Amino acid sequence: xxxxxxxxxxxVQSGGSLRLSCTASEFTYCMAWFRRAPGKExxxxxxxxxxxxxxxxxxxxxxxxxxxxxxxxxxxLQMDSLKPEDTAMYYCAAGTRFCTYxxxxxxxWGQGTQVTVSS
Length: 119
Fold this sequence. Notes:
This protein is mainly β. Helix content is 0%, strand content 53%. The strands form two sheets. Strands 2, 4, 5, 6, 9, 10 and 11 form a seven-stranded mixed sheet that branches. The protein has a four-stranded antiparallel sheet with strand order 1-3-8-7, with no helix packed on it.
């Protein structure tokens, strides 16, 4: 099983930036970031394949950037122009078969890190 350790996050004012990191014991085909906002179900936010192909949900397009450093086995999520609605617990995930936002395809999860955006 792939081990994922997250860092980053915190509290920032609306319009600010944060960067999340996720160090993996090994990289897999698909790496992704999910989030769970208070009172809501967890949702996929961004994903990246080992080819570097990325995908974002509409609400974060143009504001978030997912990237991976294969030499460091580290996944990043750069979050700019943050909004209060981005407040959530963020999770990184590793999947091996298909790169989607379906949680069943992700076998390993990070411990989660809180992002809070104040208005």
